[in-house]
Amino acid sequence: MNYLKASALSVAISAGLMLSTQALAADTIKIAAVGPVTGPVTQYGDMVREGIRTAIESVNAAGGYDGQQFEMVEVDDACEPKQGPIAANNVVNKKIGFVVGPVCSGATVGGASVYNQEGVVMITPSATAPNVTDGKNFDFVFRTIGRDDQQGPAAAKYIIDSVKPSKVAILHDKQSYGQGIASSVQDNLKKANVNVVLFEGINAGETDYSSVITKMKSAGVDFVYYGGYHPEMGLLMRQAAEQGLKVKFMGPEGAGNPEINAIAGDAVEGMLLTLPADYSALPENKAVVEAFKAKNRNASGAFQLTSYAATQAIVEGIKATKSTDPEKVAEWLHGNTVKSVIGDLSWNKQGDLNEFRFDVYTWHKDGSKTAVK
């Protein structure tokens, strides 16, 4: 072989190896943000993505992991149960080993078995339905939020101790999340001999709830609990006020969205909600809150900091195991505690948090909220 040709070949090979090595070093560790990018509750997806983005930006600014940066990849499930497995398979096909989400319980129930079967670490920051994890024997599925059977008793206790209603109506949207939390509230109220005169499902997405409002008026209801999301809650409150039904409404964290103000109007004033504790008010989270503000994001929503914490858990698992192998990270999470923006996180065998706190808030027509418990 000609010496000059051989030298040129050697240089080309060396340059190719250098480029290959640089490309490998530049590869990102992908975390899928699974939730609604489209559909009627995209705001909840926005909350989660804000939390993930802010956490990833903080980790990357500190050097990432082993020369690699983290990257968020959006995957849309429109908050629909039937889209849960489709979105999960999308993540698997993209060869992404870590997920923060899904956001909604129905989609989470649909996708969790796929993530577990395919060995993808899934941490939902917002899906509260017990059947996400109950009886499933999952190894890769976790939460950074409490369950409805923790949230329901918190709501019921406030109703019993502070509201003391005479006749209660409990409504729900017939979905895993809404019906689950409504049933939990009903069970706890009945144990305390509170008079639940109506337990009924409504159809999400409808625009006229006059029939159920008429039923509540006929029954003499003076308090309404609704299990579901903000679009229907807002309509129920507005239409109840328009039809002269003057009652106090209460809902779960799924109704805690500023968009509800535009739907309900003045009728939203005084709505009661159970929400995760306001971790943005903790002094130790001041720098994190400022990082949100610097990007015109809001750290005080229902799911921003639970999503930030889920991202922290994945990153800590990777660093602790010195591996991006989801199986090793999942095993580590099951056996260790993660310090996060929402406190120390530890999980039981089925991936539920050992401790989580829901507080009760009063919602105001300017979009602010006040803790009442």
TrEMBL record:
Signal peptide interval: 1-25
InterPro entries: Leu-bd, Leu_Ile_Val-bd, Peripla_BP_I
Pfam families in UniProt: Peripla_BP_6
Residue span(s) of domain Leucine-binding protein: 28-364
One GO term (biological process): amino acid transport
Matching Gene3D superfamilies: 3.40.50.2300
NCBIfam families: PRK15404.1
Protein name (Swiss-Prot/TrEMBL): Leucine-, isoleucine-, valine-, threonine-, and alanine-binding protein
Organism per entry: Advenella mimigardefordensis (strain DSM 17166 / LMG 22922 / DPN7)
